[in-house]
Structures are given as structure tokens and as C-alpha cells.
Write a structure and sequence with these properties.
Four copies of one chain form a homotetramer.
Chain A (H helix, E strand, L loop, with lengths): L1 E3 L14 H16 L11 E12 L8 E11 L3 E10 L2 E14 L2 E2 L4 H7 L6
Antiparallel strand pairs in A: 1-3, 2-5, 3-4, 4-5, 5-6
Chain lengths: 126, 126, 126, 126
């Protein structure tokens, strides 16, 4: 998934504000679902929540650059999934994150439904 | 209401990103309600929505500055209210906005409840 | 310019937070320049700043929706330009804004350079 | 440092968007410096950048809540510092993060100046 860096993403240091790399990764996860027509229904209280993040900030990104987010499944458990999500500018990796997502329904941890697993494409990268 | 400018509020131009002044004004409106213990209940589909904004950006603000948002009611109608909200840095006005808020319930325009009017303090400024 | 609504763009009311429509319009303006290879140099203190916004919020947008931003020049002056920028979801206009941008260099209002005018495509829409 | 949750901080899931906890921690770090009168000069290319984050999201926060960020130094090296930053709602810890910050000047890792160390209050918490 390609992401352009706009003014809103940068800060007075002239570079992308650190939390925005993590936002870009969330866009890539959501786009995986949205682009397949899956969208949370209003009032539907099930979905993934972020449980843990371990992130390395390897190099800064700048206004106007085009970045690319890649994602792959590292581990799949009954009610959670661990992804590696990287951000590259051209061939240079500038950010890398391991993120653990837990599947909740009505605020309780639940088994990930098969319909969701099908959208996630466990075998491949996205 | 005092608001500090943090890195997240600035952009690569070294100044506060333009939409953030409008965010600061929303914080001041919400704080008016939150500080009096009023908070939207989950699933409650009533509240004010932004209908129109007319905003003048008079001078830039910079990282680390302390700004002040002031608000006053310009006009009150059955189901909407018009506010003037200004932002000052010390004695210098850097932003001024007229904003029209409509009161909705279940996606329909409704009369503003008396309980809400009481919190708004129609006579005074906040 | 197509823009997808992600979680970061929505708020607890279940709709896109009002200032984000204005951010989307800024993305469209910047994309106009970035996609033609124009990017502000570091330390370059010239560019457009937002002077005035008059915005109508016509209908809410929701998580996962694909929106489209259109822009056209309403008026061009020596050192400023007025744009109309609209946001549609399909054929429904949900947001419309008139924005006045002033061209500054070293914090002073300046004549818009011809090189910038060429990128802006005064005659057409973008 | 107390932080109020506003609409801009929440998402359509009705809770605070995950990256905003990390933003709150950055506000607390910056406030440590700003409140002592230290503010980066324009064109000054030295300061801390985020190198690594390991974060646990323990419980959600909701619109209108008042949160508290606490910070303490876990380790201090020549050119970097590791902080633990926690967020509580009342007595409940809802977020905990270890963050490694590197001190850069002119894009190169440098020894942290004594003037900065003095502001950081290595011994205590902030």
C-alpha cells in the first residue's frame, strides 16, 4: 500500500511525526478489509484491538515522499494475530513494527471468526 | 481555556497546521460540557454537529507556545447556535472563527434541550 | 483525488471528525504540486498559507467510505488565490469550502511566482 | 501531567485511537522542557528522536475522561535515554511504554548536552 506524506503528517522538526508511521500501518490493515468490502457495521462491537506494539524507527521520512507499507502474518493464535509491518521509501526500510492484535467481541476476547481469517490471507503478505 | 502547542500540532512549515486551530476550538466547546460532568452516553445519538465554519487565520503559532481559546454565543435559535471563538497568544489575536452548530438527535435536527442550554451559559463567555 | 476514510479520521460519534474534511482538501492541494515533482525545499520559507476558510458541512461521512475531492480556482490575484474545494461520496456532495490562500516568502506577502502558477493550472480543475 | 480525552482523540470504535496514547506521552516529554522555558530554536537541528518503542495497551480510554501520564528514566547513556511512560485513569494503568530516545545534532548521534540533562531530571520522575 502506497502512502504519500502530507503536511499534516510532518512536524516542526521537518520530518514525519513518529506516531504517524504507526497510523500508516493501521491504514494498511484496514485497507485489507475495506478493499474486500468488509466494513464494521454500526453498533457491531467486534473487531481487532491493538494489544502490543514493538517498533523500530530506522530513518526519517519527509514531506511529499511516497512510502510503501507491507504486512505479513508472523503468528496466528485462536484469538490473536501477530503481524510484522514495515515501511519502505524505495528500497530503504525506514520503519519496522511487530504488532499483536486481539479479537474482541462485546469487550471480551473471542476466537477470530473464519470469515475474518479468510479476509486476512494468513499465508500471504498484504 | 489554555492550550499548549505540541509537536503533533505543528507541520514541516514550522507552524501550527491550519486545521488544528479549529480543533482547539472544539476542545474548548467540549471542555465546557465535560468540566460540568456532561459526557455523551454510549449509544446516545444526540448532540451538536458542525454545520458551517467561517474562519480567519490572522497570524501563525509556534511550537511550545501557550494559546488561549475564548468562546461566546453570537446567536441562539431553536435548534442551532452560532458561536464566535477566538484564539489569542498573549494579547495578539491569531485566529477567529464563527461556527454554526446544529442540534441533532437520531440524525434529525431537534430543539436544543434545556439541560444543554443550561450548560452552555448563553449569557456569558466561556 | 480519491480519499479513503480510516479509523484515525473518525470520532466517537461514528463519523468523520469535522476538521478532517479540511485536511482532505489540503491533501488535494499538496498532491497537485507533489505529483508534478514540486516539493518545498528544506529551509525554503516561501509557499501558500491559509488566510480564510468558509466551509459548509452538508452530510456526514463514515468509516471505510471512499470520498472524492475536487478543486477549482475561483479567483486569482497577484499574491493570493481563492479555491472552491468540494468533497463528494458518489454523486452526493457532503462538504464544500471556499479557501483563500496567500503566497508568502520570508513571512511577507509576495507575488505568486509564474512557476507556481503553471503548476496550479488556473484554467482547469484538479 | 493530566490529559483530557477529546473527540479528536477517539475513533468510530468509541475509544481512544491507539496511537494517541503515544502522542500523550510525547506531550508529557515536551511539557517537561517547555514548562522550564526550553524550546527548540528555529533552525536548530538538535534534539531527541524516537528510536524504539515497546508499548502495552492494557485497557481502553473513553471520550471526556481525564488521564494522567507519568514518566521516569530507566537508563541513561551517553547519547540516548530510555524512559518508562505510563498512563493511568484514576488508579487503573491503561497504557505502559518503554521508549528509547536518541540525541541527534545535524542528523548525527551526539552526546546529550549537560543543559538538557539538567532539564530531564534524571533522578526523579516527571
Amino acid at each position: 500500500m502506497k502512502i504519500r506524506v502530507y503536511y499534516e503528517d510532518t512536524d516542526a522538526g521537518g520530518i514525519v511525526y513518529h506516531t504517524n508511521y504507526i497510523k500508516y500501518c493501521e491504514r494498511a490493515r484496514s485497507e485489507r478489509f475495506f478493499s474486500q468490502g468488509h466494513r464494521p457495521l454500526e453498533g457491531d462491537a467486534s473487531g481487532f484491538v491493538v494489544h502490543h506494539i514493538s517498533a523500530d524507527f530506522l530513518a526519517p521520512a519527509f514531506l511529499g515522499e511516497m512510502l510503501e507499507v507491507t504486512s505479513r502474518v508472523l503468528a496466528l493464535k485462536r484469538s490473536s494475530v501477530i503481524l510484522e509491518q514495515d515501511i519502505h521509501r524505495g528500497s530503504v526500510k525506514i520503519f519496522s513494527m511487530e504488532i499483536t492484535l486481539a479479537y474482541l467481541s462485546e469487550s471480551k476476547v473471542r476466537r477470530i471468526p473464519d470469515s475474518i481469517l479468510a479476509l486476512l490471507d494468513i499465508e500471504g503478505a498484504f
